[in-house]
Amino acid sequence: MPVIRREITCQYANVFCSELSNAFKNVISSAKDDFESNLSCVRFEADKEKITFVATDGVQLAKYSLQKGIETENLIKVSIPTKIVKGIITCFSDIEFNVKIGFLKNDDFQKIAFEWENGYIISSLVTENYPNWNVIIPKNFGTIVKFFGDFQRAVRTAKVLTTNEEPAIWF
Predict the structure, then answer these.
(1) What is the pairing mode between strands 76-81 and 61-66?
(2) 106-113 mean pLDDT
(3) Longest CA span, the chain
(4) Which DSSP string do the residues of 76-118 spell out, in sequence order?
(5) How far is CA 2 from CA 5, 147, 170, in A?
(6) Would you state the torsion angle of the CA atoms of residues 131, 18, 9, 120, taken in this order, to the nearest 10 degrees?
(7) For 50-82, b where at least 16 C-beta lie within 10 A, e where not — what string?
(8) pTM of the predicted model as reported, rounded to 2 decimal places
């Protein structure tokens, strides 16, 4: 019979439960919810300075960062299945204490564990390669798009005819 570890003793981060839930909420809508497992997950990347959460469905991409670090020499990159993320959002959204996030390691990180005051969740991670999202989001935003002339006048005219309850443009 397998033994379930009751305390995280490996590399870990302490995060406030509602912060963790909020971070996952901000990106989960961009994750796929099907069987393409390299996109049906939330990417969790952590170093000494911050924890970054990323999700994509191949069309849209969402990124959220917490300015909390993890005591590690290397960047930790793991992919958490969306089913686990949805459970964490539900469990942690109204809880007001810290959760310890740990990574159980063999040759590479294969499991993630969440430990809090009265509970413990352990999950396998998605082992397929996650797309390199860093090449999609630019480091600096040097381009400014401005509209002048006829287009600008048309937008101002359309704005006069709209309200929050009755938008003029539908997608």
Answers:
(1) unpaired
(2) 70
(3) 73
(4) EEEEEEHHHHHHHHHHHTT--SEEEEEEEESSSEEEEEEEETT
(5) 9, 63, 55
(6) -100
(7) ebbbbbbbeeeebbbebebebeeeeebebbbbb
(8) 0.69
